[in-house]
Design a protein that fits this description.
Length: about 80
Amino acid sequence: MGFLVNSFISKYKTNPKGGDAVQEQDIIELLLQINEKGMDALLLHYGPLMRYIIAPILQNPQDQEDCLSEVAMRVWEKI
């Protein structure tokens, strides 16, 4: 599970502005279909905001990545 999320996360480190192409409803629909593209879209769209929130709380970069992974997986499981 961690590898899957980490592979998604590594793709989005280079996109600091987030993704605007996918609308929130599209993300929700993909996640409800248990489609991995939903996780891609979630992290593309919200990853930068989540990083912005996490960074001042957790100083260690590895802890930040672990937190982001945990949040993403909880969204995946709960939606």
